[in-house]
Write a structure and sequence with these properties.
CATH topology of the largest domain: Rossmann fold
Keywords: Plasmid
Strand content: 5-15%
Shape: globular
CATH superfamily of the largest domain: Glycogen Phosphorylase B
Number of strands: 13
Helix content: 25-40%
Number of helices: 15
Largest sheet: 7 strands, parallel
């Protein structure tokens, strides 16, 4: 066994040096992966994270070793640079990713698509869905053959993460897939025997769904989601109460409604179903009107990181900045309101009543009502009545997770690293 190194620097690892290679996009995906990576790193395992797009900034803050598309050897190839620059120029400017990272991601993925589909079909795919058609299997095979990790782990995200797990099967490296949510779209590839050695899911209902779609039961382990482990930590619960007290929420018997918004695209990225990008703000406006009309309520607005953070506050209307710990925040509220945000799941796990407004293009992907995690309504007009019927007060969640998701996953990982 190769001895682990203490380095936490960014950079492409040496071949044969890794116990575990993690592959993850940003958002909820990297939040699920990071606690496992940190625990293995702390245990002396040599790990590295292939941080995709917005995951890089999150991993950088963690201090764990990582690399990105821009660190791959082929990112310095002239064809990749030229292609990446050409494609990046066609896209709206943003300050989220460095230009070199955007160019490397686009250039490498596009040229992989050319190798898979041919130039003409690739041009057509780019014009009709762009990055949604990326599937960099050649690159992932190259990375795994070069680095030769003992094990890889990714989440259920499509494109690069899906390609990484497929590549692991091709080159004979064990792969584990951490399913962060319901996976009702991703079941199309998760159901296939051989897509990873094991799937880790957060709930028995997800396990049964995958079994019903044909995945062998022995491949699926209910572990929970590591991103939510701290919901059960007494320190997090206490932090929620402090937040409530410090902000003055819930005084004089008022009911604090936390609206955790999430962006709505022009169309569903998988199905192409048309969507309503104005939905998140329309719901926010409706909730503001509800607050104005009923003094028993107050509204806390928490927008998704990709949304405009300039939130107008007012009487009984508050803004929760990104600096607020979302796990503490769901403990601070009396009711959590979502369209399709994962905050709905966090609220449920924390024992806080959840109201899901299921009129989004993503409602079928996050069916909180169908899974018994929320009171569900299908339109704005039903919200006021549903709120009257919700019994506020926290469910007792103590003991729901006698072991953390991280500890459950580590017990499985150990089988591959002993």
């Amino acid at each position: 066994m190769i001895s682990p190194t203490p380095s936490t620097a960014r950079g492409y690892p040496q071949s044969g040096s890794l116990d575990v290679l993690f592959v993850s996009y940003g958002g909820g995906h990297i939040q699920a992966i990071l606690p496992v990576a940190q625990a293995l790193h702390d245990a002396g395992k040599n790990i590295c994270i292939f941080a995709l797009t917005t995951a890089a900034a999150v991993v950088e803050k963690s201090g764990l070793p990582y690399f990105t598309y821009a660190d791959l050897p082929q990112a310095r190839e002239q064809a990749v640079i030229a292609t990446g620059q050409r494609l990046a120029a066609q896209m709206p400017a943003n300050n989220v990713l460095p230009a070199a990272e955007t160019q490397a991601y686009l250039g490498i993925n596009y040229l992989d698509m050319v190798a898979r589909l041919g130039p003409e079909e690739t041009d057509q795919a780019w014009e009709n869905g762009g990055r949604q058609h990326f599937f960099p299997l050649p690159t992932m095979i190259r990375v795994l053959e070069n680095l030769a990790p003992r094990l890889i782990m990714a989440t259920n995200s499509p494109r690069s993460e899906q390609a990484a797990i497929d590549a692991a099967g091709t080159v004979g490296i064990p792969a584990l897939c951490l399913v962060d949510m319901f996976a009702l779209q991703e079941v199309a590839w998760l159901k296939k025997p051989g897509f990873g050695r094991q799937l880790f899911v957060f709930d028995e209902s997800v396990r049964q769904m995958l079994i019903n779609h044909g995945r062998p039961a022995e491949d699926i382990v209910v572990t929970g989601n590591p991103a939510f482990d701290s919901l059960y930590d007494p320190a997090t619960i206490a932090a929620g109460q402090r937040l409530r007290d410090d902000r003055g929420w819930g005084q004089d018997g008022r009911i604090s409604l936390l609206y955790a918004s999430s962006p709505e695209p022009e169309k569903h990225p998988f199905t192409g179903e048309p969507a309503n990008p104005a939905l998140p703000r329309d719901l926010e406006y409706h909730l503001r009107e509800l607050i104005d009309a009923d003094p028993q309520y107050e509204l806390i607005i928490r927008r998704h990181p990709s949304e405009d953070q300039a939130i107008a506050t007012g009487e009984r209307v508050y803004a929760s900045p990104r600096s607020d710990d979302i796990n503490a925040l769901v403990h601070a509220a009396d009711v959590v309101i979502v369209i399709g945000s994962t905050v709905g799941l966090q609220g449920y796990l924390a024992g806080t009543p959840v109201l899901s407004v299921e009129c989004s293009v993503f409602s079928k992907d996050a069916p909180f009502g169908d899974f018994g995690m929320s009171t569900a309504v299908e339109d704005f007009d039903a919200i006021a009545v549903a709120l009257k019927e919700i019994r506020t007060g926290r469910r007792d969640v103590e003991g729901q997770r006698p072991r953390t998701a991280v500890s459950r996953i580590l017990a499985e990982v150990e089988h591959y690293l002993h």
